[in-house]
Design brief:
Strand 1 and strand 2 form a beta hairpin. The chain has a 4-stranded mixed β-sheet, with no helix packed on it. The protein has a two-stranded parallel ribbon with strand order 5-6. The chain has 2 domains: 59 residues, 2-Layer Sandwich (Double Stranded RNA Binding Domain); 79 residues, Winged helix-like DNA-binding domain superfamily/Winged helix DNA-binding domain (Arc Repressor Mutant, subunit A, Orthogonal Bundle). The chain is globular. By secondary structure, the chain is an alpha/beta fold. The protein is built from 5 helices and 6 strands. Helix 3 packs across helix 4. Its main location: cytoplasm. One of its GO terms (molecular function) is methylated-DNA-[protein]-cysteine S-methyltransferase activity. This is Methylated-DNA--protein-cysteine methyltransferase.
Length: 170
């Protein structure tokens, strides 16, 4: 069985270059990574550079960073376990400018309080930074906890969304 070629492009952004990958058959976005991201993707031999496939994603990301877009309307395909997909779907419900906690995400998916660590692991494995807003998840005490893209990026994204005080960093 032949594995389909991954299509990719890179988009400039205020938080650094964004590497986007997509399923060539459906055009669905499969990942969005930033440099130095824990578990992030890097371009592999055999991947096909195809900027045209990502036009809608590029336009929506530009509008998001300009403060003009609050909700992405992109087809996503992540292929995680059933548990991870439930966690990621819960992330999609956290609105622009809001934050939630790991415990609240666990409660939304009907997971026990003991499952908070597993929820954190699923959030940390989110392959679609920014588009799937894992940056909106904070510690129960309001602290800026882990973010695969780095805490500085997390704080910049929350500042952009008006969640953190201070001047715009963009």
């Amino acid at each position: 069985m032949t594995v389909p070629t991954t299509h990719w492009t890179e988009v400039d952004s205020p938080v650094g270059p964004l590497l986007l990958t997509a399923d060539p058959g459906t055009g669905a976005l499969t990942s969005l990574s930033v440099p130095g991201q824990k578990g992030g993707r890097t371009v592999q031999e055999g991947w096909r550079h195809d900027p045209a496939l990502f036009r809608a994603a590029e336009e929506q990301l530009a509008a998001y960073f300009a403060g003009e877009l609050k909700e992405f309307q992109l087809e996503l395909s992540t292929g995680g376990s059933e548990f991870r997909e439930r966690v990621w779907a819960a992330l999609d419900t956290v609105p622009y400018g809001a934050t939630t906690t790991y415990g609240e995400i666990a409660a939304r998916i009907g997971a026990s309080r003991a499952a908070v660590r597993a929820v954190g692991g699923a959030i940390g494995a989110n392959p679609l930074l920014i588009v799937r807003p894992c940056h909106r998840v904070i510690g129960a005490d309001g602290s800026m906890t882990g973010y695969a893209g780095g805490l500085e990026r997390k704080m910049r994204l929350l500042t952009l969304e008006g969640r953190l005080p201070g001047s715009s960093l963009f």
